[in-house]
Queue: 4 jobs
Job 1
Amino acid sequence: MGCVSAKPEWSIQDLSKAAGTTSRTLRHYGEIGLLRPSRVGTNGYRYYDQDCLIRLQRILLLRDLGLGLPAIAQILDGEQEPVAALETHLQLLEQSQARLARQIESVKTTIRKSRGGEPLMATEAFDGFDHTQYKDEVIERWGKEAYESSDRWWRSKSDADKKAFQQAHVDIAADYAQARDAGLPVDDPTVQSIVQRHYDWIVLSWQGQQPSAERFRCLGQMYVDDERFAANYGGRSGAEFVRDAMAVYAERM
C-alpha cells in the first residue's frame, strides 16, 4: 500500500530516528510493500509524509503485540474505515498502557524491596518486559541470523530457566554496584571475579560463542554510550565502572 504525498515529510534517516528504528528496517518495510515512501527523490532518497508516519506508528504498535509482518499488512490493508482504524489504534494504546503500568509496578517493587532488604523474585523484576523489543537493533548490528538464533535459543528455554538467566544478570549488576560503592578499584580480584561471571553470562547468551577481547571491550563501551544499557548499572557512572572493569579483563585475555 502506497502513501499519498503531503507536507510535511521526513527523510528516511529522520523518520527512523524519530521512530526509534533503523533505516534498514524502513527499507525492508518498503521492499515488502508494508510502508512505501510517499516519494523518491531524483537522487534516490526516500521521503515519507504524515500518512506514512501514522502507518509506521501502527506497524510498530502491532509489532509490539507480537504480530508478524504479513499479519500486520493484512490488518492495515483491510481497514478502510478511518473510525474503525482509530478504534483499533486506541485499543492498542490501552494495551500498551497496561503493559507500561506493569513495568512501573515492577520497578516500584524492586525499589521497595531493595530498600527494605527484602528478597526479590525474578518474576517481579521482569513483569511486563519483552525480550524482543531490540529486535531491529540486533539485526542492524549483528545480522538477522544472529537475532533468529538467539531468539530460538531464548524461546527454547523453560520459564524457570529464563527467570534464572535474567536473575543472574541482576545479581551481577548488583555486585558491580556494591564493589563500586565499596571503593574497590576495577583491577581488584573481587571486581574481576564479577567480570568473569559477566563474561560467562555473555557466553551463555551467545550460545557458547566467546567474545574476543576487542568485542568484550566494545560491549563495555556500549553500556556507557547507550542510556538504556547504562540504566542496568545504575546510570552512566555505574556503567563506566563496569566498562573499565571489563577493559582490564580484556587486557588479560
Job 2
Amino acid sequence: MTSNPAASGAVTARDDGTGRFATLTFEREVAAPVSVLWQAWTAPAARTVWAAPSPSVTVEFLEADTRVGGREVSLCKVAGEPDVRCEGGWLVLQPDVCSVNDEVISSEGVTQSAALVTADFSDFGARSGLVVTVQLSSLAANMEQGYRQGFAAGLDNLAGVAERTMVLQRVIRAPRAVVWSAWMNPETLPQWWGPDGFSCRTSRIDLRAGGEWVFDMIGPDGTVYPNHHLYGEVRTQERLGYTLLWGENGPRHADAWASFEDQDGFTKVTLGMVFTSAAEFQTARGFGAIELGLQTLGKLDGFVAARG
C-alpha cells in the first residue's frame, strides 16, 4: 500500500465561528491501474471490504446502488456504542475520472453531519492517484476530527484492497437479459463456467441472494479443484456479489462481483475479485488467473452465441 502521509489529512477550514464547516482533502497514490482503483472505489462488494476504518468497527450495508441517482445506506457498528447511520446518493459517476456523492450521518435518529464527497482519479499507467475532497457541515461536536480519522484510515484500506483486486472485462455478443439468464440459470452456468478445457461437477446450486454453489472444477488433466460460492447481493440484470471459498465451507479465497452493462446492443461484463491477501493475489496472478478468467468470459461469449 502506498500513500502520501503528509497529504492524507490536509484540512482547509471555512469557519463561521462555530466550527461547523470544513473542507478536508485526502490524497493517495496506489499501486494499481486506475480502472482497478475505480472498481474498488465504486463496486459494493469491494466497498464492504475496505469501508471499516479499524478492526473494532463493523460496517453493514443496507442498500448499495452504484449509479447516478442510486442510494447507499450503511450502519457503522462499534460494540457498546449506538450505531452510526450513513445515508447518501451518487450524483456523478465518470468511470476512471470522477465521482461525487452526498452523505448524511446520524445516530439514534439525530443528524450529526452532512457532506459532499468528490473523488478525482489520475491515471499513471500501472499506478493511479486519488484525491478525495470532503465539504463537511457538522451539526455535532468532533465530526471534523472523526471525518479526518475515518477517511484517512478508510483510504489506506482502499489502497490495500485495490492492490489485491483483479478486474476482468469482456463485451459479450448478446443482450443483457440473455447474458444474465446464461449466468443465473443453474442448468446453464455449469456448462460454460471455467477456463478452456475445464468442466464443472455440481453438488448443490441455488443462484439467489443467500444461496450457494458447491462444485468441483475439473482440469484437463483430471485434477479436481473444490469450490464453494456464497451469494450475497443479486440485482437482476445488473450485478451480483459472492464469496469464494476453497472447497465446501473452506477458507475464504476472495470477495467477488459481476456487473452487467448495455453496450450497443451487447453486454459489457465486469468480473472483479478482492483476494484475501496480497500473497493470495500474487499467487493467483502467478498461475495465470487473469488469462484463465478471460477464457471463462470467452466461453460465456461462445455459449450465448451458439444458442443464438
Job 3
Amino acid sequence: MSTPLITVDALTLGWGDLILLKDVSFAVERGEIFAILGPSGCGKSTLLRILSGLDEPMAGTVEIEGVGAPTLEVGRPTYGVMFQSGALFGSMTVGENVALALTEWTDLPRSAVSAIVRSKLRLVGLQGSEYLQPSQLSGGMKKRAAIARAMALEPDLIFLDEPSAGLDPVSAAELDELILTLNAHLGITFVLVTHELASIFKIAKRCILLDRPTQSILARGDPRELRDNSEVPDVRDFFNRLTHSPLEET
C-alpha cells in the first residue's frame, strides 16, 4: 500500500476561543483530486491554509510526503497554490506573474525562465499572453494564469481555493476540464476547496464533508456515492441541494 501524499492527524484549528474543527484526521493519496466541502464558516479555507503552510493549527500535525508541512519562510515550496481570486499581481504582466517563483527560488538564466513561462501558459491554454496585464484577462483566464503560476516549480501537488468561484458556467466547465487534463497527463495531485457541486461530481475522486455543529468530518468518500447512497440524511441533502438541510450552502 502506498504512503499518502498528505497525512492529517488529530488536527484542531481556529482562533483564540473559537474552534472551527477539532481532532480531524484524513489522508490524500498521490495523484487524486481531493475536495474539501462544507457550509460557510465550517473552516474549509482555514484548513486549506494550514495544509499549504500559510497558517498553523492549534493542535495536530500535517505531513506532506512524510515530512511536516513546510512554510513559505523555510525554503522553496514543494507545492503550488491558486487563491480564490487568482491573486495575480496587477503591476506585473502575466508572464512576470508566472515567472515570480522561478526568479525567487531558482538561479535559472532569463532565457530558461522565459521558456518555462511560455510552456506553462501553453499548458493552460494561454499561449501568447505573457505580455498582457492581468486586467486584460477574463475571470477564467485569470484562474488559468494562476494555475500556470502554481505549476512554475513543477510541483506534484497544487492547492486550489474555490477555483470556479465567480465564473460563468462555460468558463467553470473549461476550468474543470483543465484540472482533469493536468491530473491525468502530468499526475498532479489537486486538493481543492469548493462549493460548486457540478465541479465536485465531475472532477473529485474523493472528498471530506465538514460539519459546523460537531466541528468534525461528517462524511468522506466518493461524492457521487455519498450523494446517492449515504445513510446520513444531512449528507444526502447536502449533495442533492435540498434546502431543508442545515448543511445547505447559502
Job 4
Amino acid sequence: MTGWLLQTEHLTKRFGGVTAADDINLELPRGEFHAVIGPNGAGKSTLIGLLAGEIAAEAGAIRFDGNDMTRLRADRRSRLGLARSFQITSLFAEFSALDNVALAVQAHAGHSFRFWKDARRDRTLREPARAALAGVGLEARADTRVDRLSHGEQRQLEIAIAIATGPRLLLLDEPMAGLGPEESARMQDMLRRLKSGMTILLVEHDMETVFALADRVTVLVYGRVIASGEPAAIRADPAVREAYLGEQEARGHG
C-alpha cells in the first residue's frame, strides 16, 4: 500500500509523428480533486484514455493502489474501481434515466445487456441506480426518457452512470462542455458535492470550475507536463500563463 491511489511513471503514447503523452508522471492521493488542463491538442483526452485502458501505452507504467495495471483491459480496470465519463454522451435515448443507470450497474456486475428487462425490475440494480441519480441531483427525473432531458441533464446522467458502480476513482472528461451558464452552475455545484466523497481526476477547459474545485492542477502542453501544483501556484506560474491561461484571458477580452 502506498499513499497514492493513482500513479503514472514516464507514461508515453504516440500517434504517428505526434507525441500525445510525453513522459507523463502523475501522482494522485486518495480523496483529491485533481484537474488536468491545457490547450486543445495538449493530450488531455489521451491521458484519460490511457488511464481508463481504452488506449495502450507505448512506454511507462500506471499503478492503481500500488498495483501495476498498465496492461489491464478497460473492463478489468473498471472492476478495480475506475469509472469515467466522456466528452460526448453515449446514452440509450429511448430509455428512462433510471433504466440507463440500472443497465450500467447490471453491466458492471458482469451481466449481459440482453437482460435489460431484468434491470427494470431487479431492486439490487434499481436501488443503487436511484442513489446515483440522487447523487447528481436527478432523482426527480428518474422516469424521464433520456431524449427528453436537457443537454445538461444528460451530462449529469452520464456522471450518475459513472458513480453508480461505487468507483474508487472517477475520471471526468470535460463535463462542462456545451453547457450554458445555468447548467454550468448546476454542474459545478454537483461536482462540489461529489468532491467530498471520492477521488476525482477532471479534464476541463472551464477555468472557473477548475480553480473553484481543484485541490491540485496539472498543466499539459503538447503531451508534456509543464507544471503541477496548487491552483494559486498554477495561476501565478509564468510558463502556464504563457502557454495556456494567457490565451484564455486574451480570448475572454477579445
